[in-house]
Design a protein that fits this description.
With 233 residues, this protein is of the alpha/beta class. The protein is 49% helix and 10% strand.
Length: 233
Amino acid sequence: MTRHIGIVACSAEGAALCYRTICNEGAQWLGPHGHPEVSMHTPPLSRYMACIDRNDWPGVAALMLDSARRLAAAGADFLICPDNTIHQAMPWVRDVSPLAWLHIAEVVAEEAQRRGFRMPALTGTRWLVDSEVYPQALAQRGLRCLRPLPQERDAMGTIIMQELVNGVFTPASTAVFLNAIARMQTEGCDAVILGCTEIPLIIDDTNSPLPTLNSTRLLARAALRHAVALDRK
């Protein structure tokens, strides 16, 4: 038996990438076409945005917990959320959740430490890069990150929310991210956290000036390892 993965989804593109990664890479553990059982619940993104726009993180947590309860009822054994921004609500989620969670920033921080990085650049929505989600997770492992400049944060946030979450990918928008990453490289960054689950759709190791920490795929792979752990004993 493998553990049943529950995906608390927020935006469709990022959740889809996470889901595909779990299903496509499950074969390395479970053989051809094999992957753990996966269930996903996705409320309309507009409900999340209504809370985020008014800085209502307990409201975000309520939406996440509603998904958690539905997934627990569907038989999930543990939960992941392939959305970095709404991890700001985790302080209102973890202690009352019906199931345990893998935390995306903690997974990324573990990988950064494993690969010997000391100061990753951070990319993501304005809400995420202004928050302490990644600084706290990295600090627990003796690492730190560099945040984008205010104008870079605004540009990234606009691209993410107006283009990437809607499946729109343009060379001009990709260049905005690449330029910001290159600038942070000159300030001593040794990797870049793709801290929005849609960023890996335009940035990866083939075009980034810095090695990438792909939060979406890292979370999916951590979920796979956790799900098959029972089979590896």
